[in-house]
Amino acid sequence: MLYKLPREFTLSGLRESRARITVITGSGIDAEAGLPTFRGEKGYYEDEEATYLASVDALNSEPIRQWRWYLKRFVSYYAILPASSHYALAELEAEIGENFNGIVTQNISGLHRKAGSQKVYEIHGCIREMRNLKTGGRRPLPKMWVDSPPEAEELSSWRPHVCFIGKSYDDYPLPESVAACSSCNILLVIGTAGVIHTPVWLAEQARFSGALVININPHPGELDKVSEFIFRGTSSEYFSNSF
């Protein structure tokens, strides 16, 4: 665990290297923009109702009630600006070009794209999109819904484009995420506890392929076991130490 970064692990070092870089992000990076986490302090999982409404059971039993809950989150997220760390990753992608494999994010906020990142794999979907229940087609949630909530009939043919608890990854970019992690030289894992095993498994794929795994998190977690370098701090602290 280091606070003084070896130069090759700093943002400047990554920019100067010829390494292929992949990034995995969890809710810790969004917390810096002011959004609550699911499993951290004051997270959604402290609320049993929220846990239920984020599940496939709610989709099957109370889809409109579930929609209303996600729409409240959409409205509350709408004006949120990305944190400095979101922008730092967008800048890194722009600077190293084809050597940037992409960002694999567990977050549904859409803040990476809002910050300007182009190659983003949202493995849990995005709060800003909805999917047709019959065709599977996706489209952005209408901006007018921020000020004027839709009627139930407007929602009945759609569902939030979010991977609910208890649902598979079939409709989400997991194969692309595996490819990005398996073909990188350096994997940055930022702000994920690893309670959901997917980021741990992806980090393992990177290690098996010979990549160096750098874990950036203020708290111990399951990712520590598969990381060769641990920065015990937030992503903003990591990036501020990276020049």
Quick overview:
A 6-stranded parallel sheet has the order 3-2-1-7-8-9, with helices on both faces. The chain has a 3-stranded antiparallel sheet with strand order 5-4-6. The chain is α/β, with parallel strands linked by helices.
Describe the structure.
The protein is an alpha/beta fold and 243 residues long. It has helices spanning 11-16, 27-31, 48-53, 56-61, 63-78, 84-96, 111-114, 152-155, 174-182, 198-208, 235-240, and strands at 21-25, 100-105, 120-122, 125-132, 138-140, 158-162, 186-190, 212-216, 229-231. A six-stranded parallel β-sheet has the order 3-2-1-7-8-9, with helices on both faces. The protein has a three-stranded antiparallel β-sheet with strand order 5-4-6. Helix 9 packs parallel to helix 10. The two termini are 19 Å apart.
Keywords:
about 240 residues, Rossmann fold, about 20% strand, 3-stranded antiparallel sheet
